[in-house]
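User: I'm writing a tutorial on reading structure tokens. Could you give me a worked example: one chain, its sequence, then its tokens, then a sentence or two explaining what the tokens reveal?
Assistant: Sure. Here is the example chain.
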Amino acid sequence: MHIQTFLDQQKWSGFQSLIFTMMFLVAFFDGMDTAVMGYIAPDLIREWQISKADIIPVLSAALIGAAIGAIILGPLADKFGRKVLLLVSVFLFSVGCIFSSFAENLTQLEILRFITGLGLGAALPNAVTLLSEFCPAHKRAFIVNTMYCGFPIGAAGGGFAAAYIIPHFGWESMLLISGVMPFLLCLCMLFLLPESVRYLLLINTNDQCIPQILGRINPSATQHHFQLEDRSSNISMRQAMRTVLSAKYVVGTLSLWICFFSGLMIFYGIVNWMPLLFKEAGMPPHLGPMVSGLFALGGVGAMLNGWLMDRFNGNYVIAICTFFTAICVALIGPAIDWSLLIFIVLMISAGTLQNTAQSSLPVLATKFYPTEARTTGVSWMCGIGRFGAVAGTLCMGYMANNNLAWTQIFTVLAIPAVVMSVSMLIKNIAEKAAEDRNTVTDFAKE
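And here are its predicted structure tokens:
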């Protein structure tokens, strides 16, 4: 029996819910640890008596590490397994975050945040891939998008927690909490998380192992011999990279890279700098982390997007979200002069649209790439995209240091959202052209 046929025939089980919960928590702590530096930046600047320019390398260190981690470590899951890489990456970012709380100077903090980033970059692509390979096809987008909501919820939860924890216990405590919790999750995954059955088939593992894992979904699995529904085979990392950049996938790959890059420019430009800019503008100290948290929390809209992507063209769904994101982001700057309420409403709207689209890109990528190159494709997209986070942080830092007006800042931030819409439309055109070519080829063979 094909693995996907078996998964499609079963009701959602408690075992799949356990996998979902662990992957959701990976995304949650990934979001919290990624955004935490933006929340502690104002207190770090005050306590260490440093400038805004000095904090930029610290904000960027984890993002650069995450980009490298996704590009280099992420694809190793296609060679050594999803579970192994997940355990290594979660352990790496949890320990890095714990040690960051004991940093005594900027150099130490930059190095530790870079190490933390290596784990952060490799974790989420593998979580997305592993969960998607346990999902029924007709619900995959909804389930994976719902799991990915953990990232913006974690980033938002970190902002809400920081508003209370930092004034009472200091910025170090926020880093310590952000590291200890994923470390405990790593211990749980070591004993409870299964390896991807698709990966096990890909490496021709003992057949008995696969029915035992799937038997936890339905005991009838032990009566079957399983195989992949496509002609996937275990290939080297170099071959997987060639697949991702082959003529069949290259336009879609570049579109996904550009889209993910542009989206993270917006997300990290706002999350990393809003707390500091709000404090400089004379607003209440807790308001910056709260507003950044509300922007990040908008990612819960990915659940609706997942439902839509299971029924409609995912490229169009994301393109529509990002088009309206551009409008909302462009209006945020002028809204500050209109009313604080309108500003917050626009911030939440922009966050909902932007993070919904961003959270939907990994599931779009898992559908796009074949099994043998899936983690490589998703990891590279996330890795290239993480450089967008660096670009957004640096761009926002440049504008903040040059005292640009709020209207100018948010007009610039709206441009990447337009780029995202165009990228998705190009990807859709390329896919339709490929389908037409395949149809002509099949007709010629007949």
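What the tokens reveal: The first helix runs from residue 3 to 9. The chain has a mean pLDDT of 81.
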